[in-house]
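Re: your question from the hallway

Yes, I did run it. Sequences:
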Amino acid sequence: MRDLRVLEHHHDDDTAMTPPRLIILALSVLMVVGLALAALSFPAGDARLATLAMAALPQSGVLNPVTAVLLNYRGYDTLLEVAVLLLAILGIWAVAPQARIWIRRPDTPVLAAFVQLLLPLMVVVAGYLLWLGADEPGGAFQGGAVLGALGVLWVAAAVWLSNARRGNLLRPLLGIGLAAFITAAVALLLARGSLLEYPSGQAKTIILIIEGAALFSIGATLTLLFVGGFPRRSDAP
Amino acid sequence: MINASVLYALAGVVLFGMGVYAMIAYPHLLRKILGMNVMGVGVFMVFIAISYQGPEQRADPVPHALVITGIVVAVCATGLALALATQLHALTGSARIPADGEE
Amino acid sequence: MILAGIFDIALITILLACAWLALTTPDLLRAVVLFIAFGLLAALAWVRLQAPDVALAEAAVGSGLTGALLLSTLSVMQRAEARRKQEHASATTEEERRA
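Structure:
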């Protein structure tokens, strides 16, 4: 956590209102007025899509309409999003060969012990959010965010990723969500001739399997975003 | 009377404008990234405001799903942008994009 | 109904103020902290607009994780600048001694 302790208040950016900035501000205000007029002219109460989404809910396998949209109606969209997560990490590894944060031993054992205590709790919460996501607000993204927060805490407390080998353990997790999604998509394509069209009755099982795999991928991705580079041990200050 | 949907949609538009202004006007990359995120929240707010159909009816789930996707993609874009900014700072000693005419 | 209206206007005012301050304060650390507060307020707005799924994602990812990313980047930049300043200072004293 030494990282965050050096943060100081600086007047390190010049944000004074200069004439060119005033012009930019005026142009932005003009744009806002135009966009506001456009926003006001949206057709009100046009809920055709909502009606369709709610009508098909009993066949979607889940009771939470948002999960139904994410994993069932627009499953291919979410598939591509999981691919985007993977690409973001690959992009970061390409531009930043070294981890942005220094991985070092914690100065105090209390932090490390606390984070280790949090681990099982947060894993349970993430799993619960995933399970809940079928019927109530929640799901793979929210659960994955909890796992990502856990990863950030672990990295910040230097419990985890203290060597590159453990960093390598995260790599299969990164890809598992996309792999499960693509496997399901291809299997369904071969079996039913249509991409991500779930057989009725098994929809919930398939959705939960995909979400479970995506949960780990999202958690690993968010953790590695925070690491901000290829995870390796650094002895530099 | 203006309803909540319209009110929040207008607020989203204003947020978007603020983000655009900050991205163009300020040279520091961290602030440009902040501006990008504020723009994103503005867009999300327009989406969510449009899907809101009053306290009695259930809100439209389709924009909600799109926004959840958007939030996660936004954090990925932010992470990538921050990695690029860090790298630029490490190589040149400054995380600013100088305006025309400046050094 | 009126209470809800007052809540809406108060929330939107604070949201817009937070965003504007986050984007214009000269102190980047303060800007990042204001942005985190802004994200949490936005999560509140999503709950108000009956989007609890989005609120969960926004509070955890949009505010928390983005904030952690921004803070860690800021600390890396500040540390590098402090180191450069130190090196610069020691180099100038060396030159002065030689002169």
